[in-house]
Amino acid sequence: MNKSLRLSNNKKREDRTVQQRYSFDPLTLESKNVSTAMLLMNDSDSMVIAQALAALDKFASKAPENSALLISLDILPPLLPLIEHSEIYVRRFATKLLAELSTQDETKKLLMAVPSKIPYLSEVLTKELDVPLQEFSSEILSELTKMHAACADILGTEVIDVLFQRIKSQDPDVQHNSAKVMLNLLKDPEATPVFLKSPAFEFPSIIRLLQSEYPLIQMVAIDVLDMLTKQRENKEILEAFRLAKGLEELMDILEMYDWKDLHPGILTILKNVADNPSMIQHMSTSNFIRRLLQYLGDINDASLMETTLDVLGKMATTESGRKMLMDNSITETLLKYMRDENAAITRAACIAVANMMLNQQALEIFSKDNPLREIMGIIKNEAFAWETRHGAMLALCSMIQRDKSICELFLNLHQQEALLHILKQPPGKVPMEVLVTILHCFAVCAVADDTRMKALETDFIEPTLHHLESPDAQLCVAACFCLGAYSCEAHVRERFLSGKGPARLMECLKSPYMPVRQAAASLLQLMGLDAKVADAFITTGILDWMMGQKKTKNACPTWETAIETLFKSCLPAKFFYLGHIDIQDNTGEVFYVMKRLNKPFMILDELLAIRASPRSIMLVANFGDADQKFKRTDVEQVPESQQTQVRQGQEKKVTLELSSSIIPLGFIRVGMHFERAMLFKVLADQVGIPCALVRGEYGRTWIEVAVPEIEPIEVNHSLHVEDLPKRLLKPNCVVDLMDEPGKLLKIGSFEAARYCALPSALI
């Protein structure tokens, strides 16, 4: 089939961009008399002007350098008025020459600088009935729309609505140029929505261009359809494409092997829509899969086979697509091509296999065939490109995640060593997506206890920790996910601490990418369940920094949960930052509190390890196996008038005696609100009395308890406070530990307010 562009009178000819339509023999033009021809453009005789324009156009079409020469000689100022000349043949040649020159940036800039020209060219294409003028104006617009600013100007005209009429023109050049304008508008993010909302928008006229006898028109039509079918968020567009029988038209072209040059573009369009539910439903009611598999078997081109497998792999990303492929016995086909000698075909088949594993029936077939050795062979083959090896890794990850027996076989054969070898490669040597998939492979092995312990025989924790510092956000997220999967193991948490995990995680939390912060907060939450790790996080300064990130708290769902985990593992930190310990919080065997809020918060073990003393008094209650002096809880009765003086002298004496500001609570014999409230809380937790420790606005501390009044729910049956979960209890009374020890003061009452506030605050 002859696909050269033709004239409107059906005579075959070359494209107008190669051979000119008009020539004037009486006037010849060489570079030495270009200026003369330009002078003739100002002649009063329209025929002379037309001859000069034709000669200049012929000169410009010979080489881009000639166009640049004419522009450098300032041809544009006298040329632009001629496109609106009264004589139509002058307008034709002037517009044709301008179209030739419009490939140069200088021409585009000048047209943009003259506000009236783009609307005029748009009007010519819209309203002019002369086909040559339509052709040349559309060619100029196709060049201008390569610029974002020009697209914005064109949006204010009627061109978009008319484009769908012009691609139906009998003139192939008008069709081609109009389709190029469409394509350029679709490439502009701001112009695309306006284009798609045009009342004239329709698919059939675009799809008909695929049957043109001119390859240039077909190629542009494919590009336009490609851009349209990429509008995945616009379901109406894909539905319109389906209703226009676009799939059927594409499959018809695939079965025309003499149009093989169009097949790559056709397959790309099919890949765009292959995971759309509406499209898949349409495919299931036709012979689409059968025809596509027949094409795959018949075509003898590796590149087209690869792209066809990509289409099948894309379909396999949806449940309905996998079911439809299984109905067409796809597994045998995929296994066949996965073992192909061509690396690109192998890659595409591996990805399709990975997606098909999500179908239980397909998984059983693949597991029975057990392609593990072939997959690992591809991964280990350094002769293959990383893209192919990565496809095999995706298949491996999907298989070991879905089939425990394959996962056990994978680990028993020590195949994970090959993944670890790749994971340890120097930065930049391995693509990031490969490293991400390897980390996912290790993560899925952690699901079961036996496979988790088997996987940990391979030392992948250290390189995983190293990848927390990667500048690639996706790799950081994968590293956090992998470490979190193994965080339940104590020795993994030890490796996390010894491998500077808290400091590395701190940098992830500070990442500008929200997915990295989210993943890091999730890992912190898992690791922070261990009190030792939580203390390390606090010592690193993570908690103090996180508390100040108010904007991140709102944007990151796990941020607040991670902070709560650290508070749960370290109640002294919770009391320090929040000023209260709830009823459900048990202080345990060791609890310590700083009397004054001197930031930053310091971990007791850290202070003891470095033999440092905090600047303010820190009271410690220890019920463990430490020195007996920590167990002393006796309180000397001192007259109220002397309590403050005695207490201050007592603190100085004990501080000097211990040579430290860290004072065991048992050494305090005279206490005020703070000391008595702390003593009450730690003792109450030891005997199981639920109470909350609260530090008020003015620094005074008190105890709150829940004393519910519960009516019997059945005859002779009552619900007692000890029957209620602590999380359901709500404090409603303050315990008087000073004036009338043991007296309950109703929260909200004047007595409770007076007890909880400093005297000066009541004035």
UniProtKB/TrEMBL annotation:
<comment type="similarity">
    <text>Belongs to the proteasome subunit S5B/HSM3 family.</text>
</comment>
<keyword id="KW-0677">Repeat</keyword>
<feature type="domain" description="EDR1/CTR1/ARMC3-like peptidase-like">
    <location>
        <begin position="642"/>
        <end position="744"/>
    </location>
</feature>
<dbReference type="InterPro" id="IPR055164">
    <property type="entry name" value="EDR1/CTR1/ARMC3-like_pept-like"/>
</dbReference>
<dbReference type="InterPro" id="IPR000225">
    <property type="entry name" value="Armadillo"/>
</dbReference>
<dbReference type="Pfam" id="PF10508">
    <property type="entry name" value="Proteasom_PSMB"/>
</dbReference>
<dbReference type="Pfam" id="PF14381">
    <property type="entry name" value="EDR1_CTR1_ARMC3_pept"/>
</dbReference>
<protein>
    <recommendedName>
        <fullName>26S proteasome non-ATPase regulatory subunit 5</fullName>
    </recommendedName>
</protein>
<dbReference type="GO" id="GO:0043248">
    <property type="term" value="P:proteasome assembly"/>
</dbReference>
<dbReference type="InterPro" id="IPR016024">
    <property type="entry name" value="ARM-type_fold"/>
</dbReference>
<dbReference type="InterPro" id="IPR019538">
    <property type="entry name" value="PSMD5"/>
</dbReference>
<dbReference type="InterPro" id="IPR011989">
    <property type="entry name" value="ARM-like"/>
</dbReference>
<dbReference type="InterPro" id="IPR052441">
    <property type="entry name" value="Armadillo-Ser/Thr_Kinase"/>
</dbReference>
